[in-house]
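For the sake of transparency, this paper describes our internal protein records without simplification. The record that follows is passed on verbatim for readers who wish to inspect the format:
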Amino acid sequence: MATPKIVLFDIPSKEPNHAWSLNTWRTRLVLNYKGLDYETEWLEYPEIKPRLQPHFPDKEEFTVPTVKMPDGTYIMDSLVIAEELEKQYPSPNLHLDSPFRLRYFEQLKGAFPSLRPEFLLGVPNRLLKEVSHEYWHRTRTEYVGMPLEQFVREGGGEKAYKGASPFLQNITAMLKEDDEGPFFMGKTISYVDFTHAGFLIMFRRLGDDVWQQLLNATGDPETHLKFLEALKHLTERDNY
């Protein structure tokens, strides 16, 4: 009998379907990097809770990425998943203890409030299937406390990138700290690279107009393009 595969729960896009979510990309890249045998189960937003709730009886919120391990165990949250995969499949090393991971997170956390208007309507309008639109609009409207159209009108466009730019430029500087590059740890791939790749891919999936503005806000687009190119062998698997 064949050994069960790891199952990655991810959110589909409009056809042609390609992975787009920053958070699920982190886990997908870990699986690709470690060369693990897995399959993707695609869940629309309204399907996430009913699919996962039976396996997390003590939780109230249900999110992806979630994985089902070969032994039937379900694990939720990208970092928790990474820690467990590192424990069970230690090679190649994810370098979860790299100081770059927390440093990067602080900069991304600083950039995201400004960038939020650029994807709160972009994701449903450009990426999601219609079945997920109502869920997205309802939950994100509750989160920002106003209609999404108003939120985007007040904070989107040039204002968004101007606010995010100092943090994005700090990330650019971090990528340049090791002259050997192109990764945060020079020639060594680590988990923080997968977070940044997921972030970049999500904005690239939103369209060339958004992508170019994000790249320009980093202060050095070429650094980030070279970074993504160096991970291309891990990002090509994005639809199964």
About this structure: The mean pLDDT is 97. The chain has two domains: 6-88, 99-236.
